[in-house]
Design brief:
This protein is of the alpha+beta class and 172 residues long. The protein has 5 helices and 9 strands. The chain has 2 domains: 44 residues, no CATH class; 91 residues. The chain starts with 33 loop residues before the first strand and ends with a strand. The structure holds zinc ion. InterPro entries: BCAM0308-like.
Length: 172
């Protein structure tokens, strides 16, 4: 699979910024610093990051701006850019382990970029459905799972690269 350019301010081949397609990212930016009361991320130098000490220190100042970060707003609204659908009897025989892998990968992704989060992870019939705030996290979860438990992985992007749909199956 071909890799697209990075998320942060690097234009893609159509000459636009990838993040501009994300309605939850404000083009005009935010005051700096801004605190997210949902996940305690801090916005500074034009990006959100997690730093518990910085958050605590800034939160003592009532004048510091507060606003939910894009990921917390997406979770609140149930707005997903990534969809992962898992299936097959192997999945249910290893459900706890697989859920752990997905949560661990989310934690690692979030440490690098707090906007990459799992919105929900629910069993729907014979499938485990995961929705993510960022399309790249869906691809990442699928690849990490497939690396640990080889199955049948498919990664499909919409033409504008705004939505990623991942499916993974394993029967035995
Ligand atoms: Zn947040």
């Amino acid at each position: 699979m071909r890799k697209e350019s990075g998320k942060f301010g690097i234009g893609d081949k159509r000459g636009r910024c990838e993040t501009s397609s994300d309605p939850y990212v404000q083009a005009e930016g935010l005051p700096e610093p801004t605190l997210c009361p949902g996940c305690q991320a801090v916005y500074r130098h034009k990006r959100w990051y997690l730093d518990a000490q910085a958050y605590e220190a800034l939160a003592r100042d009532a004048k510091v701006a507060r606003q939910l970060c894009p990921a917390c707003r997406k979770i609140k609204d149930g707005y997903a850019e990534g969809y992962v659908t898992l299936g097959g009897s192997y999945l249910w025989a290893h459900e706890a382990e697989i859920r752990n892998i997905l949560r661990n990968e989310e934690a690692k992704a979030m440490a690098k970029n707090p906007l990459e989060r799992i919105i929900r992870m629910d069993r729907e019939g014979d499938e485990l459905v995961i929705e993510t705030t960022e399309e790249k996290l869906a691809e990442h979860l699928g690849r990490a799972l497939n690396k640990a438990h080889q199955g049948d992985l498919k990664v499909v992007w919409t033409d504008d690269h705004a939505i990623c749909r991942v499916s993974w199956q394993r029967e035995k």
